[in-house]
């Protein structure tokens, strides 16, 4: 049965301040029983704490996160440097899914870079498949830029057919596409879906002071910055259609995520998203 869970980047501060065990205890206390681990350093100690929390609180790991390569200064597991460790962590934490959160940024601006990434991802997808692990790719909005008549997401999907897709409905919408239609298009391939709302927030009154002071650039930044992440149900996305379409397309893990909660406690935001999804009749998926 499909399950609604949490993308841990939403509460990454709690993982850093409280430790994985306590952060996962609080997630379980909200009624979530599934997590996708992201922006949590996968040290030996943290992996052991996650494993202890899974056992004590009845949580499962939907997927681990990895990059193909990491930019300088970013400490994260990569498929090029930590392949065996990633496989071992999957075994320890009982998951058979790994997701790539973003393609290398230089691939976006290098001729042939996207196709090169697709080829590399295919190689790692095949290697992981031999270990019984599936590899997925998570989109942002930039994957809807078009290159020679195709979007970047289309290039990745078509040229890396062994790569699953983790569709993030907020970023699909921000990229100018219909989340429901995109879920239908990739039905059977998107077993991981991010539930993240999209809203237009109020214009900050202080932006008018910037305009009055002649700071047109500052005003424009505030004007265009009203696009916000939102708790599920607090924005504009059609959640019943999204969840029903995702489930019909074979999604197994629907993961609540919010990149910024704008001063609200992230755990309160997770509770708000949970409440809305339960009100829509999806309580059985928790």
Automatic annotation (TrEMBL):
Q: Which Pfam families match?
A: AP_endonuc_2
Q: Which InterPro entries match?
A: IolE/XylAMocC-like (IPR050312), Xyl_isomerase-like_sf (IPR036237), Xyl_isomerase-like_TIM-brl (IPR013022)
- Isomerase as UniProt keyword: yes
Annotated Xylose isomerase-like TIM barrel domain residues: 25-259
Q: Which residues form a coiled coil?
A: none
Keywords from the UniProt entry: Carbohydrate metabolism, Isomerase
Which GO molecular function entries does the Swiss-Prot or TrEMBL record give?
isomerase activity
Q: What is this protein called?
A: Sugar phosphate isomerase
Organism name: Actinotalea ferrariae CF5-4
